[in-house]
Amino acid sequence: MPRTAILGVGHYVPTRVVTNDDLSKMFNTSDEWIVQRSGIRERRYIEHDGIGASDLAVPAARMAAERAGIAISEIDAIIFATLSPDVFFPGSGCFLQTKLGLKNIPALDIRNQCSGFLYGLQIADAWIRAGMYKRVLLVGSEVHSTGIDFSDAGRDVTVLFGDGAGAVILGPTDDPERGVQSVTLGADGSGAADLWIEAPSSRSSPSRITPEMIDARLHYPRMNGKQVFRWATEKMPEAAHLALRMADKSMADVDVFVPHQANLRINEFVARKLGIPMEKVVTTIDRYGNTTAASIPISLSEAVADGRAKPGSLVLFAAFGSGYTWGAGVVRM
Ligand code: UT7
User: Fold this and answer.
1) What is the pTM of this model?
2) Could you list the active site residues?
3) Is the CB of 155 under 6 A from ligand 1?
4) Residues of the chain under the 50 pLDDT cut
């Protein structure tokens, strides 16, 4: 059975830079609070109305295909991870397929928030090893800026989130050293309301969204930050250890650690717990904030571009987020 290799990786972030000082003009916050609590200095927002998650995914997918040395027409399946789809339905993967000029190939949307990339990686790995597809495009893409609460009530989440997209092209390799060595996933739905958007809701009858729900600001994300922080710092190291054990590798074998970018303090805590020096940890949150499903492929793309993740590098991934969902994986580039 072949292994699944990451053949190419790409990313795209909008050009509009929003600093912490910009946010402090909109609601009660400060650069000092945001940097100290999260490590974020700025994030990107879409430039204008009409840009959805699938639009950000197009340049990210093109860059990944170019770096993989394949034509877009060779892609034979799409997995699209997002919590901010262009519309309620159909999935953003369908929009992306058309925007890339592709036809007929399957387009699967997955809703696994910050762990979406790793959920997608496990699906793509299984498809490829089973011989079902040869060139899978896996995208994480988010437009958060149109769905966050720019009032004091939502400031804890709003300062964290940013827009962006990352993508990988995955395909089979006969090289026994290269490729996906392990992916482990988990979820615990008992924490669902610790980080969620409650409306629109199919369980709200007779209407999924009402003026009362909007007045109560239920269409914005709400988070129990301390609880999420606690879970993240427990589950990410646990999953990382498991992924390494499954891959028969040790922490010392890891060349690059690419964690989900939710909070620099979380990643410093996780790295310390794992015994990984910060020089091996990829950090992009200072410039892009938390781009949920996009954060891992964006960070990997930057690490490939600046030479930190090169052919032969052993990369460890770990993520935790809304759901709760979590995961970790080990990949030889
Ligand atoms: O990717 C998805 C997963 N998400 C995460 O992993 C996020 C996990 N959680 C966190 O990163 C942190 O909990 C936060 C960065 C969100 C918050 O840090 P914290 O140290 O847990 O702060 P807190 O929520 O306990 O709030 C401390 C204070 C509160 O004021 P009082 O009650 O002490 O007067 C908040 O109202 O800070 C206040 N606060 C803010 N102040 C200025 C909350 N948000 C802000 C803000 N600016 N943006």
Assistant:
1) 0.97
2) 114, 260, 290
3) yes
4) none
